[in-house]
Task: structure prediction
Amino acid sequence: MKRPTPVEDREVLLETENEDDQPGRDVIIIFAVSFEGGLAPLSLFLGWWLGHNPLAQFAWREADALWGAAAALPLVLLFLLTLRWPIGLLKQIKTFCEDEFIPLLAGSSWSDMALIALSAGVGEEMLFRGVLQCSLGTWLGIGWGYILASLLFGLLHPISIPYIVVTAFVGLYLGGAFLLTGNLLTVMVTHTLYDFALMAYLLRYHYRGGPINPIHPLDPDEDIDD
Result:
């Protein structure tokens, strides 16, 4: 048997150390859920401070939930079209998805994706629509509250200029749905299903033609379902 050379030993050691330095996928999932879910108690505090409890805008109505599910479909379709035919600066969004997002979360289970999507859908909508849009609308008028809350939604996703613009557009879409129904449940459902559909597409379909996860190398034939 051939004995490894000192150079080979050093390369193996460096690879092991680099793997040890990378955060595990579970850590990333926990961080994402904690951050997004943490927006819910933050919104309750801000709502109390500003005099606009976000839960006052929430009602469990089946019809509003169904409208929220239907409203997610156009957003998902637009995102898929952006990936399929990226135009101009929209190419940066496709590059971000393939080079950053997919490697970071590749190998996530269905339950991981559902938990992240639900945390984002509930936490972000309580903050941006339930507190900011309502508060700004009270102070500056419904129209300005709608526009400014949507712009803040984009600006607080500062991945790139095109991503901010697209996210602000999504904010306008969600804010409009909120104005139409007056129910946070609607936009929570829309946001959650939109995020889940995007993650499912990127991580379970699109990744097969893209880079693998440096944290958790993924075998395309590996069964990672729960």
About this structure: The radius of gyration is 20 Å.
